[in-house]
Amino acid sequence: MKVINNVTETVRDDLGETIRKGSRLSIAAACFSIYAYQELRKQLDSVEQVRFIFTSPTFVQEKTPKSQREFYIPRLNRERSLYGTEFEIKLRNELTQRAIAKECAEWIRKKVTFKSNTTQDLMTGFLTVDESTYMPISGFTTVDLGCERGNNIYNIVTRTESYENGRQFIRLFDEIWQDERKLQDVTEIVLESITTAYRENPPDFIYFYTLYNIFNEFLEDISEDILPNEATGFKQSKIWNMLYNFQRDAVLAIISKLEKYNGCILADSVGLGKTFTALAVIKYYEGRNKSVLVLCPKKLSANWSTYKGNYVNNPIAADRLRYDVLYHTDLSRERGTSNGLDLTLLNWGNYDLVVIDESHNFRNGEGGEGVHKGKRENRYQTLMRKVIQAGVKTKVLMLSATPVNNRFTDLRNQLALAYEGNPDYIDERLDTSKPINEIFKQAQKAFNAWSKLKPEQRTTSTLLKMLDFDFFEVLDSVTIARSRRHIEKYYSTTEIGKFPERLKPIARRPHLTDLDNAINYNDIYTILSELNLTVYTPSHFILPSKMSKYMDADDEETINLTMQGREQGIRRLMAINLLKRLESSVFSFRLTLDRIRQLIDETIHAIEQYTSGECVLDLVEITDDSQFDDDDQNGGVFQIGKKVKIDLADMDYKSWLRQLSADRDNLELLSAMVADITPIHDTKLQTLLRTIDDKMAAPINEGNRKIIIFTAFSDTAEYLYEHVSRYVMDRYHLHTAEITGSVDGKTTIPRLHGDLNTVLTCFSPVSKGRDMLMPGSTDEIDILIATDCISEGQNLQDCDYLVNYDIHWNPVRIIQRFGRIDRIGSRNARIQLVNFWPDMDLDEYINLKDRVETRIKISVMTSTGDDNPIDMEEKGDLEYRRQQLKRLMDEVVDIEDMQNGISIMDLGLNEFRLDLLEYIKQHDDVEHAPHGMHAVVAATDDMPPGVIYVLRNINGDVNVGNQNRLHPFYMVYIGEDGEVVCDHLSPKDLLDRMRLICKGQSEPDKELCRVFNQETKDGREMGLYSELLSDAIDSIIHVKEESDIDSFLKGNQISFLSGKIKGLDDFELICFLVIK
């Protein structure tokens, strides 16, 4: 008997002497490694036969259900040992696995038979060579051969000869080998498995293998409860089959987020079809018998109502959707009806799902407009109390292209709707180390620090590095945000088509009129600034001694909060409205002047009639909010407070009369100034007609004569319709339509119904499916004049030319308008935006707006004692808008580019999880595949030649500071020259690149593989790639040291000894992608 201690002498050395040409080996061991074969290759190649028994079930037919993980995982590890155990990582990192596996497979084919124990009975491992026996042998690996240390304190093996043990081990082996009840032949499966280690892999497979390793735990976490239940049949629905692939991805992701976190924000960019995506989610929940409420701004209600109506012009009528549609403003109403629903009786708490369109209107949370000292609820609080917290458990889906303005708290306020305002509810579901309020607080702090950097340092990548892992985890969990660039880049555009090319915007700056001695904007502004508009604020003239009469007995402040606050709101809106309407059209401005003057005349008449001590004045009730633009209508000022009657005897009516008379004189002067500007002398209108002529003379896409003209006001739309429709009919025989949202539209086509959908279907017949909705119809509208009631949620991509007749004061609205024609799948190669700007310098124009708002605010301050005329947030907004409008003069900007640094686009990793989920449903090859595989793909302009390494860190405490979101996995893209193309702190970018270059390539590129194999001599000479792997790991160490020093300099406590990466030995190679 000989004792081998595997220190001074090893089993390998001993076997090297014992194995001779023609020897017969019998091995019983738990696992087999190709690296053990490599150590004894010379001797093993010369043997006559090898019989190998796996002592525990390995490679046998599946008998243990995967759910019994305690049996399944060890078995998977035994099978994986073929390509090296955890102690042979170093060998695997030499990248020669492919060559070794190929030689080992050849040897097995000629000389080896593998069988596996199929029972749960225990077997002890041993190895016999001819007459010699080695035991104990737990596995046939480099550790058992004594080449590697492993995790054994000692590793003593004894060798005995047959004369010492009476050939008992050989007889025992023969006996078990013949017993078919206990063993199953697995040679073919072993061979097949080893072959995968050296076969040529399709790039597609390496991409999914990467995802499988990184997101494996995600698969285990998924329960059927949070995955869409396909038994509801929603994938057979009409809406599902109308969606593009990227929209379907979003639907599945939204449903799983709603199930897991109770809420989700869909923040896809303009033109990516958020409405249809949301409709598919609604269809899913209605299929599960849930009740759904859609809350939207008034202007979008026609759109939402169409999709649930049993009408021929509803493309998804077959789905029979039945959700309720209410307006954001309905939340502030206690009575009345809205969209056929009685608000007095409505059971707000009974909705299982609430879809909030334009959810950014709720971004101010509990501190929004109209709330003072907690005395009155705003819409956000009402939504939270009446809908979210009351009654059944309510899931919340929020739709917004701009969920963040310039504060991360905007996002937090919207997310709070999903967790009912109780942070504990979401904290227990999120996989974060800090509570959600702390995460947002730190994110805002990082953003504030970032916004103070110099412009050249203020890049998105800098911001991403300043935000911590938890913030991305939150975004990943509850938001979905894709940009048009993202869709173009990472989804196949063969199915969905491309975005059209945006031509440089055309700027028009017409004068007010072409009359001699013409007035201009500044002349009018001078007089506008002298208006008091006190006709809207009668309560300010109530005598202090009489004030108590108009106060609520329970609350002395009520009058200030409701009546006075509402009056100030209306007064401020009217002042701004005058300026906006002047900018829109002289016609619209003149109408407004007349309306205010008539109101003042009536009020003066009432005061003059006052002779007795008893004259009760009805406060002015502005119910006609159509004279305001959509943003102002949605501002809530029309929903605050009740109408109050005031006795003139209680007022200082003489002072009021003086101010009213002064206003009347100024209004008459203004009317006189613009009275001569008839349509023929309205330079702006005439410029529009010339613009139409230019388009007709030289279409930007052959045969396309369609134009959309947007304006903020229905009065202007009426005016334009009257003149434009006549002009284009006489000159070009084209039909015109007008849509303002408040009433049915108008059209020059006789007997054509003027409802929203019919008009839009005739204007954009291809995108709206006219042939299906209106079979046999040839009615065609070429000029569409519209207000912002169609600036969102409509696909009008048959058109290629969009005119903004007035510039909306909210720059995002301009992009949203353009999004009607700037859409994926457009048949137009090019699209044009034309903007009509006021006839003045942009800075002067923005200052003008600021001065009107500020002046009104200062007068509010003097009358209410409020000492905060303009808060800092608004000041930030003004500067932000100034920058945005400047950009819009020269280019069409994506909404995500307007965010001034804050964009939640392109941060989440969820789509990769969904990619993996879809793949796993159809394939099971990734689970058993070996580590260390590779694929070869062709380089592109975006992807220079080099290698992407996917590594797993085996030193637990390396990810100090939670900087790497994929920890313990690390990805590095390194160029052939050893320079890092993309480091491990940009996993989203790396996965996006990998997806782009690999997805869909389901066959290896034979020519590239041939070149690679020639260079590396079939994987035997991998020196270059080993060196690049070392460089990649060095780059991880370098970045980590830099971030440690950064943290130290910022005053954080850092132990430079903890989590120290030593180098190659700390990482296991999962796979790599060679880019040639």
Structure description:
- This protein has 1076 residues and is an alpha/beta fold.
- 43% of the residues lie in helices and 12% in strands.
- The strands form six sheets. An eight-stranded mixed sheet has the order 1-7-6-5-2-3-4-8, with helices on both faces. Strands 17, 18, 21, 22, 23, 24, 25 and 26 form an eight-stranded mixed sheet that branches.
- The longest helix is centred in the middle third of the chain and has 27 residues, at 558-584.
- It is elongated, with a radius of gyration of 37 Å.
Task: Give the % helix.
Answer: 40-55%
Helical/strand content category = alpha/beta
- Give the neighbour order of strands across the main sheet: 1-7-6-5-2-3-4-8
Uncertain residue ranges: 63-72, 368-374, 553-561, 620-624, 634-642, 857-876, 1047-1061
Separation of termini?
56 Å
Please tell me what the overall shape is.
elongated
Beta-strand portion reads 5-15%
Largest sheet: 8 strands, mixed
Number of helices: 40
Tell me, rounded to a whole number, the average pLDDT.
80
Radius of gyration from the alpha-carbon trace, in angstroms: 37 Å
Topology, pairings included?
Blueprint: E1 2-4, H1 11-18, E2 24-29, H2 34-39, H3 41-45, E3 49-54, H4 69-80, H5 89-92, H6 97-111, E4 112-117, E5 126-129, E6 132-135, E7 157-161, H7 162-165, H8 168-178, E8 183-185, H9 187-196, H10 203-221, H11 238-242, H12 245-261, E9 263-266, H13 274-287, E10 292-296, H14 301-306, E11 324-327, E12 337-338, E13 341-342, E14 353-357, H15 379-389, E15 395-399, H16 408-418, H17 423-427, H18 436-451, H19 460-466, H20 469-478, E16 479-480, H21 484-490, H22 493-496, E17 501-502, E18 506-508, H23 521-528, H24 558-584, H25 586-609, E19 616-618, H26 630-633, E20 645-647, H27 653-674, H28 683-697, E21 707-710, H29 714-732, E22 736-739, E23 746-747, H30 756-763, H31 770-773, E24 783-786, E25 801-804, H32 811-818, E26 830-836, H33 842-864, H34 872-890, H35 895-898, H36 910-922, H37 925-928, E27 933-937, E28 946-953, E29 969-975, E30 980-982, H38 987-998, H39 1006-1015, H40 1023-1049, E31 1067-1075
Parallel strand pairs: 2-3, 3-4, 9-15, 9-16, 10-11, 10-14, 14-15, 17-26, 18-26, 21-24, 21-25, 22-24, 25-26, 27-31
Antiparallel strand pairs: 1-7, 2-5, 4-8, 5-6, 6-7, 12-13, 19-20, 22-23, 28-29, 28-31, 29-30
Helix pairs in contact: 6-9, 10-36, 10-38, 12-13, 24-25, 24-33, 25-27, 28-29, 33-34
